[in-house]
Specification:
Layout: H1 2-14, H2 19-36, H3 45-58, H4 63-80, H5 105-113, H6 118-130, H7 134-138, E1 145-146, E2 151-157, E3 161-166, H8 169-182, H9 200-213, H10 223-235, H11 240-247, H12 252-256, H13 263-267, H14 272-275
Antiparallel strand pairs: 1-2, 2-3
Helix pairs in contact: 2-4, 3-4, 6-8, 6-10
Length: 284
C-alpha cells in the first residue's frame, strides 16, 4: 500500500487536512486492508459497506468513531482512487447532548502539586494555562514561546489554522525550569529520542496518573483541562469573543456553550422558588 499511502497523504495535504485527521484517515484505510487481507484498491464498495457495519454491530464502536472511518474511506475512494460515485452509509442516530465535567481551580491546583516529574508537570500546566488541544500540546515547538510578547504560537491547530494564545508568567517560569533540566531542541515536549514529538497516548497516561494521585473522581481526559481553561476565564469575566480567539474556535456558538458550565452563571441565578412572595403569617 506504500504508493497508495503516499498518494492519499499528498491528496490530504493539498486539501489542507489537519495532521491528526491525516493520521486517522490513513489508519482507517490500513485497518480496512488488514481486515480483508488485500490491497484497499482491490476491495469493492459492497465490502467496504459490510466492514463499516461490522465495526458498528460486531465491534460495537461508537457512532462517532464509525463516522470518522466512513469519512476516511469515502475520501480514499473518491479522491485517491477517483471513484467519484463511491458512497458509504451509516445509520446516524441522534446523539445525546452532554456537558463535560469541569475541573475546579482547586482540583487543577492539586493535579499540578501531585505531579513531581518536571516534564509531566510542564505538560499539564501548559495544556491548562494555554487552553490547548491534546495534539497541539504534543506538537508545540520550543520556538513557539515568545517571552517578549508573552504568547504561545500554536501551529496548524484544528482546521489547519495557526493562532496565538496566552503565556502566563507562572507558566514561563515553569517552562524555563523544565528547559534547563531537559534542553529540548525542536519539539518542546519530545519523545525520548528527541527527534519526534511526544505521543498523544503518552500525554493521556500522564494526565490520568496525575488525576489518580490527586484523587479526582470526575470523568474526563486531558481535554478537560481545555474545558476548564475556557470556563475559568469566563468566570473571571473575560469576554467570550476573546476566549473564542484564544481557543481557536471557528464559531462563537462553540465557545458560548461554556456559559452553561460557568459557576458564576449558575450560582448567580436565583431559583424562582426564592422569588416567591412569602405568605404573611401575622394575619389572623
Amino acid at each position: 500500500m506504500n504508493s497508495l499511502r503516499k498518494q492519499m497523504e499528498a491528496d490530504m495535504v493539498i486539501r489542507g487536512l489537519a495532521y491528526r485527521t491525516r493520521q486517522s484517515y490513513v489508519e482507517s484505510v490500513a485497518n480496512l486492508a488488514k481486515f480483508y487481507g488485500k490491497r484497499p484498491d482491490q476491495i469493492d464498495e459492497a465490502e467496504v459497506q459490510r466492514y463499516l457495519l461490522h465495526l458498528l454491530e460486531a465491534r460495537q464502536l461508537a457512532h462517532s468513531s464509525c463516522n470518522v472511518v466512513c469519512s476516511a474511506l469515502q475520501f480514499f475512494y473518491r479522491v485517491t482512487l477517483k471513484r467519484r460515485e463511491a458512497e458509504f452509509c451509516l445509520p446516524r442516530p441522534k446523539v445525546p447532548s452532554k456537558l463535560p465535567a469541569i475541573l475546579s481551580r482547586e482540583e487543577i491546583a492539586t493535579l499540578i502539586e501531585k505531579t513531581a516529574n518536571p516534564k509531566h508537570r510542564a505538560i499539564l500546566m501548559t495544556t491548562y494555562a494555554a487552553g490547548l488541544r491534546l495534539s497541539e500540546v504534543c506538537r508545540l515547538k520550543v520556538a513557539a514561546i515568545d517571552s517578549d510578547r508573552m504568547t504561545l504560537r500554536v501551529e496548524q491547530g484544528k482546521g489547519a489554522k495557526d493562532r496565538y494564545t496566552l503565556l502566563s508568567p507562572r507558566l514561563l517560569t515553569e517552562l524555563r525550569r523544565y528547559w534547563l533540566a531537559y534542553r529540548p531542541l525542536l519539539w518542546l515536549f519530545p519523545m525520548q529520542d528527541g527527534q519526534q514529538p511526544i505521543a498523544d497516548r503518552t500525554v493521556q497516561k500522564i494526565f490520568y496518573a496525575a488525576k489518580d494521585r490527586a484523587g479526582i473522581a470526575k470523568q474526563c481526559g486531558i481535554h478537560g483541562l481545555r474545558h476548564a481553561f475556557a470556563t475559568h476565564l469566563l468566570e473571571a469575566g473575560v469576554d467570550v469573543h476573546r476566549i473564542q480567539r484564544l481557543m481557536g474556535h471557528g464559531s462563537l456558538t462553540t465557545t458560548a456553550r461554556y456559559f452553561h458550565l460557568a459557576q458564576k452563571q449558575l450560582s448567580g441565578t436565583p431559583s424562582p422558588l426564592d422569588l416567591l412572595e412569602r405568605p404573611d403569617t401575622t394575619r389572623f
